Amino acid sequence: MADASTVALNLVFLGTLVLGLLMFLAGLALFSVVLLAAGAGRLAALLLSGPARRIRTRSLRVQRRDPA
To answer: How many angstroms separate the CA atoms of 48 and 44, rounded?
Structure first.
C-alpha cells in the first residue's frame, strides 16, 4: 500500500492538471464564441448595408433628376 501522503500529493497534482485542462477548454470555447459573434455581426452588417445602399443611391438619383 502506498503512503497516504504520496496518494494525497498525486491526487492534488491530478486535480490541478484537470483544472488546468478545464480552464483551457473554457478559454477555447469562449474564444470560439467571440469569433462566431464577430462573424455573425459582420454578416449582419453586410446584409443590412446592401438594402441601405440601394435606398441611398435611389434617393440620390431622384434628387439629381429633380432640380427644384
So the answer is: 6
Alpha-carbon distance of 53 to 3, in angstroms, equals 75
- Whole-angstrom Cα distance, residue 20 to residue 31? 16
Q: CA quadruple 34, 40, 44, 46: dihedral positive or negative?
A: positive
| CA pair distance 62, 58, nearest whole angstrom | 6
pTM: 0.63
Grid cell of 17 as nine digits: 492538471
Cell of 65: 433628376
Residue 52 has a pLDDT of 75
Q: Compute the distance between CA of residue 38 and CA of residue 16 in angstroms, rounded to an integer.
A: 33
What does 43-65 look like in DSSP terms, one character per residue?
Answer: HHHHHHHHHHHHHHHHHHHHHHH
